[in-house]
Structure formats: C-alpha cells, structure tokens
Design a protein that fits this description.
The complex is a heterodimer. Chain A has one domain. Chain A is 67% helix and 0% strand. Chain A has 13 helices and no strands. In chain A, helix 2 runs parallel beside helix 9, helix 5 packs parallel to helix 12 and helix 6 runs parallel beside helix 8. The longest helix of chain A has 33 residues. Chain A starts with 18 loop residues before the first helix and ends with a helix. By secondary structure, chain B is mainly alpha-helical. Chain B has three domains: 25 residues; 31 residues; 41 residues. Chain B is 78% helix and 4% strand. Chain B is built from five helices and two strands. In chain B, strands 1-2 form a two-stranded antiparallel sheet. The chains are: A mainly alpha, B mainly alpha. At the A-B interface, helix 1, helix 3, helix 4, helix 5 and helix 6 of A face helix 1, helix 3, strand 2, helix 4 and helix 5 of B.
C-alpha cells in the first residue's frame, strides 16, 4: 500500500503504523472484555437477556448501564434508575462537543459518531494531535468497543443465567468492585477525593430516610452544588475507565494541573 | 410503568445527550461551570453507587460480605490491576467471606 495522499483524502497509512489505531484496538479489547461483568451482573440483578442487550446496544455508556442495573438491584424504582443513568451520562454531551470540534463529522456521520461518543473513544481522539490520527482513534475505539462490548455483554448474560444464585458467586461484591473501578481513575488530586467523600457521606445519611435509589440522586445534587461553586481543573471527572495513554505524563496530556 | 419502558427512556436520553454535543453552539457547553458540574457529578454519582451497593440493604445499612469486596477491590486498584481483575477480586472476596460463614 502506498503512503501517497491526494486532495481531500486522508493520508493513507498502514493501520499497523498508526499509533492511534494501535491504542484504540488494545483499548477496545480491554474495555470490551469487561462487558462480561456487565452482562453477568445485569441478569443477576433481575434483568432478562434482551433487556441486558438493549442497555448495551442502545444506551451504550458503561457507567450509565451499571448505574441503571445497580439502582434496580438495590430495590430502587425504574424512574430512579433512569434518572441516575441519565445524570451519569451528562458528560457524554461534553464529549460530543469536543469530538464535534475535533473531527467536524458532517451529515449522517454525526448521528453515528454520537452513538459511539463515550469516555474511551473521546480520550483516544483527544490524546492525538494529528487530525487523521484523531479520526482513526475515535472511530476505531468507538466501533471496536461497541462490537466487543456487545459480544461480551451477551457472553456475560448467558453465563450469569447459568450460574444460579448470584450471591454464592459474590456477584453483589462484583458490583461494588465495578463501581469503585469506574470511580478510581477519576480520583486524581485532593478535590475529587473530597467530592467522593462528601457524596459517599450524603448517600449513607440519606439511605434510611428516602426510598431506594433516591440516595444516589441526593449525592448527584451535592456533587452538582460542589461543582458549581468550586474552581478546580476543568476536565475533572472526565477520564476514561481504561486510560488509553497510561504511562504518558498526564499533566502534559491534559495541559494543566491544579 | 414497567421496566422495559424505563430502559427505553434511559436509552433515548443517553443518545440525545450525546447528540446534543454535536448540535449546540460550542460556546454554550464551553461554559467552565457546566463542564465542571458534569465532571464532579460523575465522581459523586460513582462514589454514591459504590457505597449504596456496598452497605445499603433496602433502607437499612448493613456490614456484610460486600465490605470485603470493597476492600479487595481497593487493594487490587492500588496494585494497578486491570478493571476485570478488580471485579473478580471483589466477587471472590464476597464469595469467600460467605463460604466462611460471614455476611
């Protein structure tokens, strides 16, 4: 394959030589694999196979999916689950704006790009400086994760169905670990820890007094108020679950510290 | 309303949120306060979900095998284990504690 490019065509490079492509592929595999835990936890929480698949195919945002099933598993209502999921997905709107500014997808491509706008695809694209690399990184991570996440969700859902009593396998413990694992990469610096602690405390205090699921929404309000009045770095909390650039100097990448 | 309805509403809202970013004027979302709230809310919700799943049982607070899962996951994360290993560590700790007769 030649490396020549003409006119508006993006430069043709061997994909194996594209750093963004390589990062996106390894990220797709790492992220896709933990679709297994989502699938298994979802059926353990009482969702059937197709409800589980609907969340992975249509909602397609890991944190929001775990939030939805987590609220229901704790005895919360569908309304509370929907609200927790929607609030946790708000950051995707910011990512959409960032990708739109970087790639400027036109026409129908926009509608496809929106669906695969998640933590990981945005982080892969925004970690590159060359526009062609940004484009390759975004689409490879977005589509790669979409495919693998759904395949492994199905595997997890079928395996979870066959496992029987979820508690015997510690699947409720797996859910706790999954949420901590999603939170962990976002706890960089003192302010994120303070926010996490304040919201954890608000949750525990609210549990005995309000219906299941609602304590999570109380924590969301606390977090929003803190966010509105504080002045820390702007991209706080907007980190991918699996860091595509682990090992790269983070301060250099995000261009600023507290 | 049944669970399917809430699932589908959540799916529509998730997609609409993503799509909005592609259509609103960049200035609107570049407001530092809105960006910051989206970030802090993500942290707050995940912290809350971690705690609810670890200690809430309906409207009660209980200490059971799930606390072991929380600690095991934290240790795995301190050792920079990948996500799937963290989840397995949590499940194994809870299952083991129950096998030993606690929680």
């Amino acid at each position: 394959m030649s490396g020549a490019s003409r006119g508006q065509e993006p430069a043709r490079v061997r994909l194996g030589a594209s750093p963004a492509f390589k990062i996106a592929v390894s990220l797709s595999i790492a992220t896709g694999l933990y679709g297994v835990s989502f699938g298994a936890l979802s059926v353990a929480s009482g969702f059937d196979f197709w409800q589980t698949m609907a969340l992975s195919l249509l909602l397609f945002s890991g944190g929001s999916q775990f939030a939805f099933i987590g609220v229901v598993a704790g005895g919360g209502s569908g309304l509370a689950a929907m609200m927790a999921s929607a609030l946790l997905g708000l950051r995707n709107g910011i990512y959409g704006m960032q990708i739109n500014a970087l790639l400027r997808p036109g026409g129908l491509k926009r509608y496809a790009a929106a669906h695969v706008t998640i933590d990981e695809s945005t982080a892969t694209a925004s970690g590159q400086t060359d526009p062609d690399e940004q484009r390759r990184g975004f689409w490879t991570a977005g589509i790669g994760i979409f495919i693998l996440w759904n395949i492994f969700t199905a595997v997890g859902a079928l395996a979870g169905d066959a496992m029987g009593d979820p508690k015997r396998w510690g699947l409720d413990g797996a859910a706790v670990a999954a949420f901590l694992g999603l939170l962990w990469p976002r706890l960089r610096g003192r302010e994120p820890w303070a926010i996490a602690a304040a919201c954890a405390l608000a949750t525990v205090l609210a549990v005995p007094f309000v219906p299941s699921g609602v304590p999570i929404l109380v924590a969301a309000v606390v977090a929003a108020v803190i966010g509105w009045y504080s002045h820390a770095r702007l991209n706080e909390g907007l980190e991918p679950d699996v860091d595509p650039y682990a090992g790269v100097d983070r301060d250099r990448k995000i261009g600023g510290t507290e | 309303m049944n669970l399917w309805t809430w699932i589908l509403i959540a799916c529509v809202l998730a997609y609409a949120t993503k799509l909005i970013g592609y259509f609103v004027p960049a200035k609107l979302l570049q407001n530092p306060r809105i960006m910051h709230v989206a970030g802090t809310m993500t942290i707050g919700l995940l912290a809350s979900l971690t705690l609810v799943n670890a200690v809430a049982s309906g409207q009660g607070l209980v200490l059971d095998a799930r606390i072991g899962a929380l600690l095991a996951a934290a240790v795995a994360l301190l050792f920079r284990a990948p996500f799937l290993v963290v989840v397995i560590a949590g499940a194994a700790a809870a299952a083991l504690l129950r096998l030993l007769g606690w929680g």
